[in-house]
Specification:
D-Maltodextrin-Binding Protein, domain 2, 2 domains, 5-stranded mixed beta sheet, 4-stranded mixed beta sheet, elongated
């Protein structure tokens, strides 16, 4: 056989083996992609959340970002207030409830009666914000004693100059969370000394956006709600500092986190039905929520917990897989 024929045969074999090799690489690549695709969880189902309007922005952010990856999972988030959400949660109507206070003994008993076992998970720090109209130019700080004078049960304060003689002769209008709100419970306890103890003649709402509209449209107004709603609406509202005996301190990431904004700093929670965690979509959502807790707290306008608290929460909830 001539040397030219040998060269031609070698070239043919080279092309043949190169083609096989390329084909094998493509097959490997195809198989790898298939494996990657098959390993990805295909989640479906509904995770119903209700409760606190204060925690609402955090849970909504979690739901929206989670659904970017798992669009077939439906996650409706309601705002019936902490009390309203607990009423549904303890009878098994919801998977998760948002709460701006801890669960009450009575609610625990109802949950037991209905066979509902749950886990409490802290998700952020909040500082209740005392707000006034943006054009209010006579006050930038109130003491806790003055807040009590204004908000306590039986209070007859109806004019700003009844609080301090230096304040103008201006009618005061009060706005606050409704009685199903954990924010209402917390504020009345730390300011008035008893949960639920308050004057009745104020404009209440479980929807903080209603309170924003009320205060922003009324020059003589005074109200309170969670820090996130002030941050979202600071162009429409004035924020007051609070003096509990250590000088006037306003809510901020730093003062809420170190509790110097006292006594209006508090943790925020979600409560999870343990039996629901066995559902893959629920576990993956809670896992996402806690692994990204600091980011979600920031998205909601609140202060993140130390990372170990989120990690501890994930370890606890993983027991119910």
């Amino acid at each position: 056989m001539g040397k030219y024929k040998i060269l031609i045969i070698l070239m043919i074999f080279s092309v043949f083996f190169l083609t096989i090799a390329c084909g094998s690489d493509e097959n490997l690549s195809s198989n790898s992609n298939t494996m990657s695709s098959s390993n990805k969880l295909e989640l479906t189902g509904t995770i119903e959340i209700d409760g606190s309007s204060t925690v609402f922005p955090i849970s909504v952010a979690a739901a929206e970002i989670f659904r970017e990856e798992y669009s077939k999972v439906q996650i409706p988030v309601g705002i019936s207030g902490t009390g309203g959400g607990m009423k549904r949660f303890v009878i098994g109507e919801t998977t998760i409830t948002n709460a701006s206070r801890t669960i009450r003994d009575k609610e625990v008993e109802i949950a037991k009666e209905n066979g509902i076992e749950f886990t409490e998970l802290a998700v952020a720090f909040d500082g209740l914000s005392v707000i006034v109209n943006k054009n209010n130019d006579w006050v930038d700080c109130l003491t806790t004693a003055e807040l009590n004078l204004i908000w306590d049960q039986g209070s007859t304060i109806n004019n700003w100059n009844q609080i301090r003689p230096s304040f103008p002769d201006k009618e005061i209008s009060l706005y606050g969370p409704g009685t199903d709100s954990g924010t209402f419970d917390y504020f009345t306890e730390v300011i008035n000394g008893q949960e639920g103890k308050t004057r009745a003649d104020f404009t209440p709402s479980e929807d903080d956006n209603v309170l924003v509209m009320g205060v922003s449209g009324d020059l003589g107004s005074l109200g309170y709600f969670g820090y996130a709603y002030y941050v979202q609406n600071k162009d429409k509202l004035g924020l007051l500092s609070v003096d509990s005996g250590s000088g006037c301190i306003g809510p901020s990431d730093e003062t809420i986190n170190n509790s110097s904004y006292s006594p209006l700093s508090r943790p925020l929670f979600i409560y999870v039905n343990n039996s629901e965690v066995k559902r893959e979509e629920v576990f993956e959502f809670i896992k996402f929520y806690l692994e990204n807790g600091a980011m979600l707290a920031g998205e909601g306008g609140y202060v993140a917990l130390p990372q170990n608290m989120y990690s501890d929460g994930l370890k606890e909830i993983s027991k119910y897989r």
